[in-house]
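G., the chain you wanted modeled:
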Amino acid sequence: MSKKPCVGLFGTCGGSLWRGPFMEKYDESNIDYFNPQVADWKPEMAEIEAEHLANDEIILFPITSETYATGSLAEVGFSILNAISLDDRRDFVILIDPDLDTHLQENPGAYKESLRARALVKQHLKKLKLSNVYLVDTLQEMLAVSVGLYESASIRKRFENYNPHRK
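Predicted structure as tokens:
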């Protein structure tokens, strides 16, 4: 049997604490995950992150209100390109907070551009007809969906040996 599926915890980084409850639930449920947020990130870690972004069975992209999220919004676009690729059985769960924390208004240009990008990306995602892209409104929904998708991915993994195209 193949290795277990993995959930990639991408999206908002920095000082964000959103990953804590997810990792607690995953640890309790014996769910494998990749956390790209480390205390001392180094450029050589970019290759590991890219590998997980390209291969993890479930990719989470919460774009919270805590940052302008320029990089995360760009990563969502690249991930959707992966979602469209042929024979891609990976799932993408996306949350885009429509607003920003008030302290981010200190930079009016970045604030306005982030709100614009968030609205555009969310509307474009809503128009896509992809069965492996899930849009959620809350972190609680994201956690519940990710656990369900992990269960589904685990079942699919059991049958990979029977699919000549997945070996």
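The helical segments are 19-28, 45-55, 70-84, 108-127, 139-158.

Shout if anything looks off.
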